[in-house]
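Memo to structure team: turn this sequence into structure tokens by end of day. - J.P.
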Amino acid sequence: MSRFDRLKALGRDDRGQALVEFALIMPFLLLFLVGIVEFGRAWNQHQVITDAAREGARKAVVFDASVTVDTVENTIKRALAAAGINPAGATITGQGTWLLDSNENATVSISLPYRFIFFGALKQWTTGESTVQLRTSVTMRNE
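Reply from structure team:
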């Protein structure tokens, strides 16, 4: 076998091809997987604060003389704490005619800072801020 034949055979050797392709694509697959997990966590937090706002709005619109604004806020904070979220970081606001016997709507809004674990560090590096604000608002009619 001549030297040229050996070089020609070496060019057709495809051993290790799959390993190289896997090494090239693996970082993108891991980034995609981490993105799915982090987005799922953020979506879960958003659903929790939406549920807490819904509970607070329901408490605010059902006519009961013993219900106060503090009662509504405590209801929201209890719902957040039950889901493992620190209610101290949440901003709770109310609009409309709260706790009155009228036909106007009452709105409860919650804003909560959320920090992504992996992409939060990337956001910190690019924009200087590591959190995003999760916001939700629920409007119910007074009864």
